[in-house]
Amino acid sequence: MLAIIIPYFKLTFFEATLRSLEVQTDKRFKVYIVNDASPEDPTGLLEKYKGKFDFVYHRFEDNLGGISLVQQWERCIAITGDEEWIMILGDDDVLGETVVASWYENYEIFNEKSNVVRFASKVITEETGAVSHTYMHPVWEAATDSFYRKLEYLTRSSLSEYVFSKASYLKYGFYNYPSGWYSDDKAWIDFAGNKPIFSINESVVSIRNSFLNISSRKDNLEVKNKAEMVFYRFMILNKLNFYKKEQRLKLIRKYEDSIKKSKNLTIREWLLLTYFYLKFFDLYSFKKFIKRLVKNLLRYE
Q1: Closest C-alpha to 18, from 44, 60, 46
Q2: Fold of 2-215
């Protein structure tokens, strides 16, 4: 069976999420609603949905999501039962009515061939009411290729539209980046292992973008920049061999830029970058890098 975990904190759009679960055409799922010490009590609303679908409600008295989103996800997963597949659904996101049905319809296709399954997605911009086009994906795609498409702004990706095997989660876990930035990106690369991501494009998960989202906040750029730097360091140290030469150079440059946004480059970091620019040598890219290096050195004379 499929476990759908909702780390609950905000009531504002929560009923839309619950309603999307109520109207699922296939009810073979169990929902775990986990209250992260929210000041907004959802129990009155949950009474309305008793018997509409299978769910359990648990409240933690200490807020963990404000300290570490990843640790909050982990304790949510810890209270699930024997379900072998997990979706972590935002408390403001919405499932299309056939999401669960299409997951089961495709089960025999992806089972044992993939550890990560994703649905097509749309973005709802709450302030304007605009709904994006549907983001669809190759049916089978390497996780590293999927991330690179996101890097190139050819697609989007977030937590809610993915289903992953509990076995892969237990093997790798989520990496605890600051505020959870890039934790899901790394998870899909890790969880996939040597198997491709399987995409179900006939059903859609709608992701809500509002003033309540962490991604919409402007006061956490320092935290985001730090997470970006650590993530791209992981990518260049561990995943460059999965990419073509020009893609490798772009990832190296992303790491360089992320350090500059987070802090000044140290000699150690310049040496590391020099090593990678030489290893994947391109004359134009290397000349531009040397100019940046010289400019940096002159600044400290």
Answers
A1: 46
A2: Spore Coat Polysaccharide Biosynthesis Protein SpsA; Chain A (3.90.550)
